Amino acid sequence: MNHIALKMLMGDKGKYLGIVMGLTFASLIMTQQPAIFLGIMSRTYSFISDVGLPDIWVMDPKVQFVDDIKPLQDTELYRVRGISGVEWAMPMYKGLLKARLFDGRFQTCNVVGLDDATLIGGPPVMLEGKIDDLRRSDSVIVDIDGARDKLGKPSPIPGGKPIPLKIGDSLELNDRRAIVVGIAKVTRTFQSQPVIYTTYSRAKSYAPRERKLLSFVLVKAKKGQDLAELTRRIRETTGLAAYTQEEFKTLSFEYFIHNTGIPINFGTSVLLGFIVGAAIAGQTFYNFTLGNLMQFGVLKAMGTSNWTLLRMILLQAVLVGSIGYGLGVGLTALFGFAMRHTILAFKFPWQLLLFSGAGVSLICVFAAVISIVKVIRLEPAIVFKG
């Protein structure tokens, strides 16, 4: 009977391909759009991930996410260092500054100032140069994406690609010279602005004059120290906010979830893909069943049970669902691979396969149910009517 069910399914190639394409479209939308959404949302805390060494981030209590900088006084650093359980605590400056480029243009950049002695919090991957070169006079390290694009020199050909910055080139930050001594690879941030690394003291000289310039205190806990207990101790002693790395990521992530329209926009796209896929697959599968009512009637007249007919329809639904799901996921993976070197955000965790698989399964169940009801109610005598 399974063989007969498959022959019935593939006998009408137009309807068969229509069902598969509908499920492929639904699977593609339900996989691709969430992957882009997760990619965008992962950029909200990508800077925290790149600074992987500290266990705890200390900041002003009113900070809502990683780019919501509310500076502290430098004396807060020494208060944190004096707390029991702290292995070390290092300062970090993070702020948006305008860089004056080679041709006089201005570009807003994320400037990160690292502790002068240890350079903790530096870029995760150095492509050219060494992080120790930041100790040289007026030195900065630029991320590769910014060096190639927004910080690049104008192309001599109108409309051509910018000429990437290289080691030895210079730019200006707050009318002070900055010489590129290294090129680094960093994860793109939510705003996708160029990232410039320098030392903490030099970053303070680049920044506009303010009484408070300390953005974060990066803390490493002593071996065996409970992080939850240490963060509580830091909060109670200093009155500042203290988060573990994962807690700070969650804080940034939830801010964008609750305060932007990104989830609604992508959720609407996913829901639309589900509805359109269900409509196309359900209607086509139902029409396929109507077109084969005569065959189902013959099988019923020959004594085939409703359970056997039910199993045949489920087999047909599972087959087209598996093919459509596989094609949709495959196209999503190819799309992500093709976009890997572009500015497009894309993240494809294995949990997303379960999500889209569940969506396609619901569509297949819906399509199968409306067909099963029609077949079960079918009277065998219909075969013999004029």
Portion of residues in helices?
Answer: 40-55%
> Would you report the number of β strands?
10
Proportion of strand residues: 15-25%
By DSSP (H or I, 4+ residues per run), the number of helices equals 12
Poorly predicted runs are none
**Shape call:** elongated
* Structural class by SSE content: alpha+beta
> What integer is the average pLDDT?
86
Q: Give the CA-CA distance, first to last residue.
A: 27 Å
Order of helices and strands: HHHEHEEEEHEEEHEHEHHHHH
**What would you report as the Rg, rounded to the nearest angstrom?**
30 Å
How are the strands of the largest sheet arranged? 2-3-8-5-7-6
- Count of the separate structural domains: 2
Q: Biggest sheet, in brief?
A: 6 strands, mixed, barrel
Descriptive key words:
6-stranded mixed beta barrel; 10 strands; alpha+beta
Please specify the SSE layout and strand pairing.
Blueprint: H1 2-11, H2 13-42, H3 46-50, E1 56-59, H4 75-81, E2 86-100, E3 106-114, E4 125-128, E5 139-143, H5 144-148, E6 170-173, E7 176-185, E8 195-199, H6 200-206, E9 216-221, H7 227-238, E10 241-244, H8 245-259, H9 262-291, H10 293-301, H11 306-338, H12 350-376
Parallel strand pairs: 3-8, 5-7
Antiparallel strand pairs: 1-9, 1-10, 2-3, 2-6, 2-9, 4-7, 5-8, 6-7
